[in-house]
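Input chain follows. Return structure tokens only.
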Amino acid sequence: MDIQVNFTNKVAESSLISLDLASYYPVGERVLFDIKDQLFQGLMLREKDFREFVKTHNWSLYANKHVAVHCSTDAIVPTWAYMLVASRLGPHAQTVVFGDLAALELTLFDRALATIPIENYRDQRIVVKGCGDIPVPTSAYVTLAEKLTKVAQSVFFGEPCSTVPVYKRKTI
């Protein structure tokens, strides 16, 4: 007896559009520049010594890297010191932000999300991919949801075969 079974891939036939935030992950090495290493006795910044360091430091070490600038000790660092470091990093680094590595990741994803052509998703059913090898900050999902709810018909989280509803436009 010959039995023929036809399987239908309903996910492939659906009108769902999959959006993977990891595909917007900014490539490049992340580096932390900690001003604490330039503090006198780990407590305070001496302007003359700091300016000498800035003048002689090899800033090309940060070429094409994403750099977070901060001070990990509880010292008072004047704002101009961070500005001075940023002015030297600027010509070399891909990105320079104030804060730690977590703040750097948030900034990188915020900038990447700004490049998503949101209008391409107008009146569409979107599935925002939820798992992957690249860690995506929760704030990136929040920002994306806020953007998509202005244009999309519906937004889901997960995989096309197993989604969690997030938003559905009300019909009038």
